Structure to design on (381 residues):
């Protein structure tokens, strides 16, 4: 049995069609996009083609896309670039690449509000409205959460931010290419994404910056990417992101329909086989392939469960394992949803993707209940 990879929220495998598109940009004759000669012009054309494809995924204009070195960098640029002054609002379940930027601004003396979330993991629009002040410059709320997979009501939240005179940024690293995101319909001013979550390469991302929004750069150099991200472009990486975006636009709906059926089968089967299993986060407002489960009374066993599954060829994640080396720390996301520190330590994240097959899910559903039962104390099996 091959390994069954069910940790697509951590990173997705490179789509072979993306690899193929990238390979053409490693060989001789590949120039610097800023050079005027033919190899340079070819590289420039490839970068601009990728920009059109990324813009197309969000119904944005190509000139509104800035390539970055990662989703983390896109989030940093959005927030640091906008927050030269004023008050910042972020949700308390953001990825560390937003939360830690917010904390660093707070240490520099700027006012920051960390918004609470409801027990289902969603931000309530009235709580955002109450947090907005006359000097609020930016609201940053993620499109979909990396730990629990819940999808926020962006259209309503961005309207609340705009009514209060603030800009709206969304970290769409988990959502991009998985659910439709039209920046105009959603009222988003800034949107971050990362290639390695949509079957592209690691180490490349992008930030959508609405044409009317002006950001201060974090880096200074040769003026590439409209001066917002100066550095010689990672041409092969950018080409990979462009190809991944083009494929996502074409295949997102078919992928989603298939993954929702597999996801719901996993949730239903595990809930009926294991009476103590519970789903974390809203049942329906979630990414198509994303499941976060807890096992009541067994939360302390989450890491052992993960390792036992690994030994049987199934790769899943513990709900908190979305930052470097995180071991058994309670997840800040589950804590913000009101879970106690024990329950917040013990979730299992199962995330499906384009390459997840029905046979993979069959294997998971054979071994997961067995492993979970074996770890349960004798009396409660
Ligand atoms: N934002 C979210 C929601 C994520 O899940 C991640 C990665 O796990 C990031 C940002 C960071 O993206 P990158 O790994 O490209 O820096």
């Amino acid at each position: 049995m091959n390994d069954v990879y069910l940790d697509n929220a951590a990173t997705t495998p490179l789509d072979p069609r993306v690899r193929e598109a990238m390979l053409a940009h490693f060989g001789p004759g590949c120039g610097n996009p800023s050079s005027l000669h033919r190899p340079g012009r070819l590289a420039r054309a490839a970068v601009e083609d990728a920009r059109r494809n990324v813009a197309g995924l969000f119904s944005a204009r190509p000139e509104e896309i800035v390539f970055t070195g990662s989703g983390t960098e896109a989030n940093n640029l959005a927030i640091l670039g906008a927050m030269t002054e004023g008050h910042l609002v972020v949700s308390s379940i953001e990825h560390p690449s937003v939360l830690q930027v917010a904390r660093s601004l707070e240490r520099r003396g700027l006012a920051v509000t960390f918004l609470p979330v409801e027990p289902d993991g969603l931000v309530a629009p009235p709580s955002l409205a109450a947090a907005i002040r006359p000097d609020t410059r930016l609201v940053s709320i993620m499109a979909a959460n990396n730990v629990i997979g819940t999808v926020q009501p962006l259209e309503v939240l961005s309207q609340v931010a705009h009514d209060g005179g603030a800009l709206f940024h969304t970290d769409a690293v988990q959502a991009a290419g998985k659910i439709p995101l039209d920046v105009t319909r959603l009222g988003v001013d800034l949107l971050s994404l990362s290639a390695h979550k949509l079957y592209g390469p690691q180490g490349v991302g992008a930030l959508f910056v609405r044409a009317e929004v002006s950001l201060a750069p974090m880096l200074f150099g040769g003026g590439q990417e409209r001066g917002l991200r100066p550095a010689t472009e990672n041409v092969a990486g950018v080409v990979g992101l462009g190809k991944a975006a083009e494929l996502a636009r074409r295949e997102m709906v078919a992928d989603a329909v298939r993954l929702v059926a597999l996801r719901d089968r996993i949730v239903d089967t595990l809930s009926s086989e294991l009476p103590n299993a519970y789903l974390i986060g809203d049942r329906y407002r979630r990414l198509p392939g994303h499941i976060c489960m807890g096992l009541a009374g067994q939360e302390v066993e989450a890491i052992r469960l993960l390792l036992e599954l690994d030994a049987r060829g199934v790769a899943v994640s513990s709900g908190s394992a979305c930052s470097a080396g995180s071991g058994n720390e309670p997840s800040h996301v589950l804590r913000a949803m009101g879970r106690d520190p024990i329950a917040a330590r013990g979730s299992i994240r199962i995330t499906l993707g384009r390459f997840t097959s029905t046979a993979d899910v069959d294997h998971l559903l054979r071994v997961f209940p067995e492993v979970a039962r074996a770890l349960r104390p004798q009396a409660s099996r």
